[in-house]
């Protein structure tokens, strides 16, 4: 399976976010711990309230919050807490109705409930835990020997977030300073990779703004990132707004103000744009720019940065190729090909004759061949000759028209209003010494 550039970052981020909710604690620490997550505190409030309502029926419960140790099962945890094996096993059987106990991970906190100790014995009443930020699971005693399980799910809603910033050293840094999650920044960069050469087009002082969604629970816990709904990149003062729009036949895409799809047959930046190094001031560099001496475009990026197929096509050459080092050439149609050089290694399934889709990872940045440092050397070839990528613009030609265009124009107004409304409470990413504050502009070139 090829990894498409769109999916992985989001999943990784969500996974990281979820992992972050559960505080890993030293294994087998059997002491009582204080509830740490919102949900645990809420569970405790519910319990206290229940105990208050029916003081005679529900005396104070002895709660012990434990942590699942590395390699431990729920059975290990319960028997370790002195729950009789037969009771532990019927409680675990009841749990299976709502949750697979094998999914419990090391570090998961589990609260075990007992009746207060009377004499030498104390009765096991059940357990509770919060496997992820959107639900809690509990097992409660039912009668003398039985247990029953239940789970409570939290509603997740979409919250709009507005962000904006000034690009000083890199787009990634500007996004991070504005508090934009990495997965959202990656989506933003991907959307602009058709139009923008992130190595040469960005200049200090350029600005971005965007409106995106976040998935939140009622207590405000962020459980995932949604889509970028609107974005704008102002390069050298020229605004390039894009809007997310769903057509009547259900396709979702980004369009410019005129209703033209932003997609192109070739990406302008065929690399993970967030990882481009020293993106500024390379436009007129005699070696690094496009010139007769150097028939390609270089993207400086750390070794290992993923390289994407600029467009759909067939790999017609892959392997070491003289001064180019590890090299791939993709044929996109009878006329146009793209080539990628100096790779540290190829993606696992990059092979001659293999089909690629735009955005597939074909290899990784390296310094093989005749080079002084790690970078991607990228060429666009027309009829077998290197040409300036700028001279090749292959729009998909999709343009909204008629009623679809009218609906899109309404979407533009709604999104722009949402952005302004949301920005009302926005904390602008201001960093001391931005070019603007020094009074310089692009025209005076600081
Ligand atoms: Zn080069």
Name every ligand kind in the structure: zinc ion
CATH topology assignment of the largest domain: Nuclear Transport Factor 2, Chain: A
Q: Uncertain spans, ≥5 residues at pLDDT below 50?
A: 1-35, 53-57, 283-288, 427-446
The counted number of beta strands is: 20
What is the number of helices? 7
What is the radius of gyration? 28 Å
Order of helices and strands: HHEHHEEEEEHHEEEEEEEEEEEEEEH
Broad CATH class of the largest domain: Alpha Beta
Structural class: alpha+beta
Q: What's the number of domains?
A: 3
Mean pLDDT: 80
The shape is elongated
Q: Strand content of the residues, in percent?
A: 25-35%
Percentage of helical residues? Answer: 10-25%
Head-to-tail CA distance between termini? 47 Å
CATH architecture group name of the largest domain: Roll
The major pleated sheet works out as: 7 strands, antiparallel
Offer a quick outline of the entry.
The protein is an alpha+beta fold and 446 residues long.
Q: Keywords, please?
A:
about 450 residues, alpha+beta, Nuclear Transport Factor 2, Chain: A, Glucose Permease (Domain IIA), 3 domains, five-stranded antiparallel beta sheet, disordered C terminus, binds zinc ion, zinc, protease, M23 family metallopeptidase
Please write out the topology:
Elements: H1 8-21, H2 38-53, E1 62-67, H3 74-80, H4 85-95, E2 109-114, E3 124-132, E4 135-142, E5 146-153, E6 157-166, H5 171-177, H6 182-192, E7 207-216, E8 222-235, E9 238-246, E10 252-255, E11 297-300, E12 306-308, E13 313-320, E14 326-331, E15 336-343, E16 345-346, E17 355-356, E18 361-364, E19 375-382, E20 385-387, H7 402-423
Antiparallel strand pairs: 1-2, 2-3, 3-4, 4-5, 6-7, 7-8, 8-9, 9-10, 11-19, 12-18, 13-14, 13-17, 14-15, 15-19, 16-18, 19-20
Helix pairs in contact: 3-4
Bound molecules: zinc ion (ZN).
The site of zinc ion has 4 residues, from loops.
């Amino acid at each position: 399976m090829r990894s498409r550039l769109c999916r992985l970052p989001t999943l990784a981020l969500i996974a990281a976010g979820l992992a972050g909710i559960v505080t890993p604690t030293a294994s087998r620490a059997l002491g009582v711990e204080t509830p740490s997550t919102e949900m645990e505190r809420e569970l405790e409030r519910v319990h206290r309230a229940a105990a208050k309502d029916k003081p005679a029926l529900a005396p104070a419960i002895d709660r012990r919050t434990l942590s699942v140790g590395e390699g431990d099962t729920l059975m290990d945890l319960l028997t370790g807490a002195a729950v009789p094996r037969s009771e532990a096993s019927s409680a675990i059987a009841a749990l299976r109705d709502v949750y697979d106990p094998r999914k419990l991970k090391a570090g998961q906190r589990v609260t075990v409930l007992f009746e207060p100790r009377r004499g030498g014995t104390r009765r096991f009443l059940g357990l509770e835990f919060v496997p992820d930020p959107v639900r809690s699971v509990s097992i409660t005693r039912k009668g003398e020997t039985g247990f029953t399980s239940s789970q409570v799910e939290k509603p997740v809603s979409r919250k709009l977030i507005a962000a904006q910033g000034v690009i000083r050293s890199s787009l990634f840094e500007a996004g991070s300073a504005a508090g934009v999650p990495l997965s959202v920044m990656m989506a933003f960069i991907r959307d602009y990779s058709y139009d923008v050469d992130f190595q040469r087009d960005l200049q200090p002082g350029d600005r971005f703004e965007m409106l995106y969604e976040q998935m939140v629970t009622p207590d405000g816990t962020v459980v995932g990132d949604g889509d970028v709904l609107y974005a704008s990149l102002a390069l050298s003062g020229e605004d390039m707004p894009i809007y997310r729009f769903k057509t009547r036949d259900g396709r979702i895409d980004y369009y410019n103000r005129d209703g033209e799809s932003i997609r192109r047959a070739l990406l302008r930046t065929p690399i993970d744009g967030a990882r481009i190094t020293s993106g500024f001031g390379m436009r007129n560099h005699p070696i690094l720019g496009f010139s007769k001496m150097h028939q390609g475009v270089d993207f400086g990026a750390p070794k290992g940065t993923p390289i994407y197929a600029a467009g759909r096509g067939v790999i017609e050459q892959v392997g070491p190729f003289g001064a180019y080092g590890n090299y791939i050439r993709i044929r996109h149609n009878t006329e146009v090909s793209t080539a990628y050089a100096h790779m540290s290694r190829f993606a696992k399934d990059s092979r001659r004759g293999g089909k690629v889709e735009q955005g597939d990872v074909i290899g990784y940045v390296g310094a093989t061949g005749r080079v002084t440092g790690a970078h991607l050397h990228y060429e666009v070839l027309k009829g077998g000759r290197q040409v300036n990528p700028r001279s090749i613009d292959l729009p998909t030609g999709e343009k909204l028209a008629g009623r679809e265009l009218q609906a899109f124009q309404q979407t533009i107004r709604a999104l722009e209003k949402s952005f302004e409304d949301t920005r009302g409470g926005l904390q602008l990413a201001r960093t001391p010494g931005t070019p603007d504050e020094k009074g310089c502009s692009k025209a005076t070139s600081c």
